[in-house]
Amino acid sequence: MLASSLIAPVLAAPPTFDSLFPAGGQIGGRVETQVSGKGMEKETFLVWSSDPHVVVLGGDKPKKFFLNIAKDAVAGPCLVRLHNETDASPPRIVEVGKFEEVLETEPNDTLADARKAEGKMNVTFNGVLEKAGDVDTFAIRVQKGKRVTLELHGYALGSPMDPAMRLLNDRGVEIAAGHDTHNLDPRIEHTPAADGALFVQLFAFAHPPAADVALKGSANHVYRLTVTDEPKPAAALSEPGKVALPVLVNGCISKAAEEDAYTFTAKKGDDLQISVRAQRMRSLLDATLRIEDEAGKALQQADDADKDSLDPTLHWKAPKDGEFKLIIADRFQHGSAEHVYELTVRPFVPSLTATLDTHAYRLEAGKTVEVKLTVKTNGTFAGKIKAQAVQLPAGVTAESVDVPAKGGEVKLTLKATAEVAANQAPFAVELVTSAPDIVETVTASYAIPFTEPRGDLLIMTDTHPWLTVVVAKKP
Questions:
Q1: What is the CATH number of domain 247-347?
Q2: 276: number of Cβ within 10 Å
Q3: Which residue, 184, 175, 233, is CA-closest to 205?
Q4: CATH superfamily entry for domain 3-97
Q5: Buried b / exposed e along 140-149 (16+ C-beta atoms within 10 A)
Q6: What is the tens place of the pLDDT at every residue in 125-183?
Q7: pTM of the predicted structure, to 2 decimals
Q8: Residue 193 DSSP SS3
Q9: How many CB atoms within 10 Å of residue 181?
Q10: When comparing pLDDT for 421 and 118, which is higher?
């Protein structure tokens, strides 16, 4: 179920939505938050949430409203979107957390500033690097030998920033630092040598990159910093060795230059889909995958699946009966307890993906609008594939269209009757095959709008494109 909440009367012009601060809250909490964007000081708007457990309620001032997060909400990201009777903003990411939420208090540039606030642990700090050269500093209280994890979400929220983080001791000496991880956001793990206070400093460079390397800031440089000493759940890892197919195993490249080898038996012509998940699990592993025969000869290998995924996949047919090895390694021969992966080997099944051309569509009464999608197929389907629009409002229709067996660009035409009522809501585009035993229905998605992606946001795609049905006002 999807939620939309009234903030006030309808906007006369399309809303802009640059950022949200704070960009989230704790499970079961009620958070006053503020929207940053142009032309909203005297306007009001509607807000849609992709999660029914996160409801947006209007405040008593322009640009301000409340996030009501249910007690049964699940920690993680969701999307919110502003809309009115004529258009909709791109969606923005909101994050539900499990720890206490704290807002930064300015000034907090120095250790002296941070010392005025009580050090906290198991907390999420919400802040904004609001001007060029801004540095935010927080005090945390640590215990000897109890490992601390500091994880920043700034870029991952869609903020235009390349953040960095330093961990300092009580004398201001740097004891750990972090910059890029699987994306531009930093992460630090540190085991304190003594009880006491440590200090976290945050700052950011420009994203997209600028010619200079000066520290940047703006009202849209919003971040969330989670600091915890809770132990991570121990992962159940499999030891490399002989496996029976199909198989799903979890492993770890625990030291530099290590390779994990899994031996399996196959018959000539066995058609297999082999995939590794690492980057998609927020692992530090940049995985490579290769297949060897019994003599150690490399038969096939893979690195990145495509430009959008650093995880390798292989579609492979056994050339003969016998034993074969699947070997997983790190591209740069790195290794640690954080270089984890998931390996899946199963019979190959045809699959497809569909990507929409944009996040929102506008349809006027009595007219039509085209919805373009790009379909990619992997394998051959036994029957026809059709694309169809679903969850359309009354008065809007769209005929299904055939999808070429090899994929490609497909166009759906949404048509509104002259008597259609005004409407603002998400809809969906589905791809279905005439052979449901081969592939399930696939829902098309659009990419979350962002400039020059350099690693994953908390949400990269969404399956709820927006449809605004516009009706001319009578004189």
A1: 2.60.120.380
A2: 25
A3: 184
A4: Immunoglobulins (2.60.40.10)
A5: bebeeeeebe
A6: 999 999 999 999 999 999 999 999 999 999 999 999 999 999 999 999 999 999 998 89
A7: 0.90
A8: coil
A9: 18
A10: 421
